[in-house]
Write a sequence for this structure.
């Protein structure tokens, strides 16, 4: 029996088994797992860099997940420069540069970040800082179509997540959940770029769930779907996590009078299942009713089949920013289990058997309320390890202005007392919620975790080391200094029978990365924007 | 003695005013700058750099606050903060940088005078029209899906110069710029952007939002005219709403 880290389980049907890395999450079940096993616990010590690619776009770090299809790697930079590279040698096959984006609304929530492309139907799809969804020709890198999804000047939002291709459509959300904005997913036909459907996270008047919003707050109530969803063809459902309600730290303007203690501000901080063809809501499970901590539930939905109480179940495992992790039946949304992964947790005193929050410690207007974890997340937006960071929240109710930041307060990040390590790579049984091992680290870890069939777990640290742990024990087996801090998402793939492990590098210069760095003032974590690719020496096994 | 008192009174008044402005500046700072994602309270570092104790001069603080920093998340606040708020927050950040007597806006007997943003000068019906024009609740059915006015909205069409006389004319617009593009056997209403030897670029207007297509010139036929009508994309609005939008456009569109 073996355990893979961070909720990655072993039902082979949903893993990424082939040579490629065709989707953002490896597969559309979002495991971030490669079954390749040429590199394993026995030979990982021989792993060596084989090529390096400098993107030349140093506006931010390199956050995107590379996509590999048929020996070609597709990677996007923060300014939406797209490169097609020979995945075995790093040679540029074509490159594309998105024109200077239209500036966003002053004081809005637009970010110079891009977390990946999607590749399908001979096209490469990505979103931009000015909310354009672009389709390039996969062979030449020339634009085939592009469509504006929203006006950044008005919504104060942008697209940072990799799109999800679902059959004949490409589905994309957007940021803006901490601005006065109403979140949505939009689906376009991959052939023509024409609109297929849009689903709003906040129901309009007359729709079920609308009654959970006070007055007109539904129009600007947040709920951004700012990460990438999952798809189960067997259920014909797409699964997505939604962001927090806005304003973040105070609910005066959005909570109905008797709204405490029940579902609130639907469908924010919720996991939703939508019909893949129509975008109609099939089921939902709200994780953080009346979210007043910015604990949005926007993260990946991991799909796996596992036995629960002697019965094989089709499950969805989902962690939100608080580190609460929910196990749901993905056919109907039925609650199976929930467990909390942070070591320091003060925002609630616990959860009930059916996953309800107990002992909520809520921010209060004009007062300083300290809660753990912080809004930077027990885990960041990517498949990152766990961080132990708290924040002092001061709630300040403000009037929402469309497209402008609407946090309703401010925070100061703090390290919890009496600790010497502030992050850890963990292996958890995704069904029982039992921690199998933990690899502690003295600072904070913000790069994704990659698991492989060679019983290896890869990630990188802010000091610049890319390293491998034994997936069965958490023992460190290998480490390589790549020169810049790690914030991206590593992948594994093979070309002509040779397995590669590729990691983006560069410490994040803006939010999260630079929010957390001042907690360790003696450190100077380096930015950058390079892809470093490793393999075993040629001819070795 | 009497002279000293006379001197002292204005000084005290100025100091009191400075304290008020700095207090106002702190409030603006906490609301607009110390958001956790950006700067921290009292200028400590958070998502964005430390602002306190950096040795910044007031003209520099003023310029950066008003104009922003290109290529970063620091926005230009000149358009979004009122003049007194801008002055107050600049004075507050100056104080955080050890400037004991920052320059503050002159206070008239009725308080600081701020220029009113242009949209606030619009009559009520035009303001209603402006809200409708950009109405996010209508999704891609809103006017701003294809039209840009004063820098907001998506400029799919060329700028408006001539406005329809009334709602009936607005609905009946045929828009002579729309052609018929035939691609892979499918005819579609299109706004042609460019025709070069390497590529034809056009907006497919089949369903909002318009999709900008880039195609091989050999793959398309372009014919003058189209059955497309403006009426087909403004169905989200009632006649009364369109009337209000026309009032807004008459006020906002400069011929």
């Amino acid at each position: 029996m073996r355990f893979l880290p961070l909720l990655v389980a072993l039902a082979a049907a949903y893993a990424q088994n082939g040579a490629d890395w065709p989707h953002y999450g490896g597969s559309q079940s979002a495991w971030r797992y490669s079954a390749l096993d040429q590199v394993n616990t026995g030979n990982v010590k021989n792993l060596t860099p084989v090529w390096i690619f400098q993107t030349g776009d140093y506006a931010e770090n390199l956050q995107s997940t590379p996509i590999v299809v048929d020996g070609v790697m597709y990677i996007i930079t923060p300014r939406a420069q797209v490169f097609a590279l020979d995945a075995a040698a790093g040679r540029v096959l074509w490159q594309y540069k998105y024109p200077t984006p239209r500036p966003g609304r002053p004081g809005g929530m637009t970010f110079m970040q891009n977390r990946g492309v999607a590749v399908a139907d001979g096209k490469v799809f990505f979103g931009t800082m000015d909310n354009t969804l672009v389709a390039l020709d996969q062979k030449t890198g020339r634009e085939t179509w592009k469509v504006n999804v929203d006006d950044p000047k008005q919504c104060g939002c942008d697209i940072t997540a990799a799109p999800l291709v679902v059959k004949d459509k490409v589905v994309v959300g957007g940021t803006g959940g901490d601005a006065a904005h109403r979140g949505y997913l939009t689906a376009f036909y991959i052939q023509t770029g024409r609109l297929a459907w849009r689903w709003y996270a906040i129901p309009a008047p007359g729709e079920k769930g609308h009654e959970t919003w006070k007055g007109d707050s539904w129009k600007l109530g947040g709920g951004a779907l700012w990460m990438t969803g999952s798809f189960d063809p067997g259920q014909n459902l797409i699964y997505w996590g939604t962001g927090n309600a806005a304003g973040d730290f105070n609910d005066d303007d959005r909570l109905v009078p008797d709204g405490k203690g029940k579902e609130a501000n639907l469908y924010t901080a919720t996991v939703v299942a939508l019909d893949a063809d129509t975008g109609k809501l099939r089921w939902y499970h709200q994780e953080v009713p009346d979210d007043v901590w910015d604990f949005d539930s926007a993260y990946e939905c991991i799909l796996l089949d596992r036995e629960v109480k002697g019965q094989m179940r089709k499950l969805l495992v989902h962690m939100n920013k608080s580190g609460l992790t929910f196990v749901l039946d993905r056919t109907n949304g039925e609650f199976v289990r929930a467990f909390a992964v942070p070591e320091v947790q003060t925002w609630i005193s616990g959860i009930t058997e059916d996953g309800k929050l107990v002992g909520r410690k809520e921010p209060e207007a004009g007062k300083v309320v300290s809660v753990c974890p912080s809004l930077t997340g027990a885990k960041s937006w990517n498949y990152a390890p766990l961080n132990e960071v708290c924040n002092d929240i001061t709630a300040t109710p403000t009037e929402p202005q469309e497209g402008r930041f609407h946090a309703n307060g401010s925070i100061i990040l703090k390290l919890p007392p009496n600790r010497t390590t502030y992050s850890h790579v963990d292996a958890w049984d995704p069904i029982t919620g039992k921690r199998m091992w933990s690899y502690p680290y003295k600072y904070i870890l913000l790069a994704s975790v990659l698991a492989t069939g060679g019983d290896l777990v890869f990630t990188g640290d802010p000091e610049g080391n890319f390293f491998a742990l034994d997936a069965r024990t958490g023992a460190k087996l290998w480490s390589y200094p790549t020169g810049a801090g790690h914030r991206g998402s590593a992948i594994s793939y093979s070309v002509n029978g040779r397995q590669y492990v590729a990691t983006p590098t560069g410490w994040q210069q803006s939010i999260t990365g630079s929010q957390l760095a001042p907690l360790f003032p003696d450190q100077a974590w380096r930015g950058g924007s390079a892809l470093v690719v490793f393999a075993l020496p040629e001819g070795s096994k | 003695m009497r002279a000293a008192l006379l001197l002292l009174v204005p000084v005290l008044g100025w100091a009191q005013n400075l304290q008020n402005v700095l207090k106002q500046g702190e409030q603006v700072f906490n609301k607009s700058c110390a958001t956790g994602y950006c700067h921290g309270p009292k200028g400590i570092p958070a998502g964005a750099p430390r602002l306190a104790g950096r040795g910044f001069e007031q003209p520099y603080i003023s310029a950066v606050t008003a104009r922003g920093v290109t290529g970063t998340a620091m926005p230009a606040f000149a358009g979004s903060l009122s003049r007194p708020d801008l002055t107050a927050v600049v004075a507050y950040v100056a104080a955080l940088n050890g400037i004991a007597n920052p320059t503050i806006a002159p206070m008239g007997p009725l308080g600081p005078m701020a220029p009113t943003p242009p949209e606030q000068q619009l009559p009520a019906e035009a303001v209603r029209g402006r809200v409708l024009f950009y109405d996010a609740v209508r999704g891609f059915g809103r006017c701003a899906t294809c039209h840009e006015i004063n820098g907001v909205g998506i400029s799919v069409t060329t700028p408006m110069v001539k406005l329809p006389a009334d709602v009936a004319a607005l609905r009946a617009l045929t828009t002579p710029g729309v052609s018929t593009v035939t691609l892979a056997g499918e005819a579609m209403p299109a706004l042609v952007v460019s025709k070069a030897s390497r590529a034809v670029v056009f907006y497919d207007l089949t369903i909002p939002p318009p999709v900008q297509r880039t195609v091989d010139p050999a793959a398309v036929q372009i014919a003058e005219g189209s059955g497309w009508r403006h009426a087909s994309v403004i169905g989200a609005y009632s006649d009364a709403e369109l009337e209000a939008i026309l009032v807004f456009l008459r006020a906002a569109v400069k011929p």
User: Anything to note?
Assistant: The CA atoms of residues 167 and 238 of chain B lie 10 Å apart. Chain B has a mean pLDDT of 83. Chain B touches chain A through 49 residues (CB under 8 Å).
